[in-house]
Amino acid sequence: GDSVNQTEGPVTLSEGALLTLNCTYQTTYSGSYHFWYVQHLNKAPQLLLKGSMTNQRPEHEGFQATLVRSDSSFHLQKRAVQASDSAVYYCALSDTVRKGCRGS
After folding, report:
1. What count of Cα atoms within 13 Å lies in the side-chain half-sphere of residue 21?
2. Of the four, 15, 33, 41, 42, which is 20 to 30 A from 90 by CA?
3. What's the confidence (pLDDT) of residue 102?
4. Biggest alpha carbon distance in the chain?
5. Domains, in order of start, for the chain
6. Percent of the chain with pLDDT over 70
7. What mean pLDDT value characterizes the chain?
8. Is-contact 35 47, C-beta < 8 A?
């Protein structure tokens, strides 16, 4: 089935540091969408970025993700982070989200 894999858990950052979060995926659907979510302490997860075949380098508020289909990756970066960027980050696939909504 479809899956994503990321090695990082909660991220605590120093001002000005470079944030790099790695995400790899497996999917049989070539038109899938790819997502990064951010969850700050005691808050609900929020959508940060959405990538697709037509938008392989989405950007938002200094964050940028790069979708590389040849190595099945959707890595997230931000230069010169702020302390407020410390949070839990999740990557996801559109197929993963749909399966979750069905409760399987």
Report:
1. 28
2. 15
3. 43
4. 41
5. 3-95 (2.60.40.10)
6. 88
7. 86
8. yes
Closest by Cα among 5, 13, 91, 80 to 45: 91
71: Cβ contacts below 8 Å, ≥ 6 apart: 24
Residue 103 confidence (pLDDT) above 80: no
The Cα 36–Cα 96 span in angstroms is 13
The answer to whether the CB of 33 falls within 8 A of the CB of 52 is: yes
Q: How far apart are the first and last CA of the chain?
A: 12
pTM of the shown model: 0.83
Q: How far is CA 13 from CA 19, 64, 65, 80, 101, in A?
A: 8, 17, 18, 10, 32
Residues 6 or more apart in contact with residue 54 via CB below 8 angstroms: none
Instruction: Give pLDDT tens digits for 6-61.
Output: 977 678 888 998 999 999 999 888 788 999 999 999 999 999 999 988 899 999 99
Distances (CA, A) of 70 to 7, 25, 67, 74, 86: 20, 11, 9, 11, 30
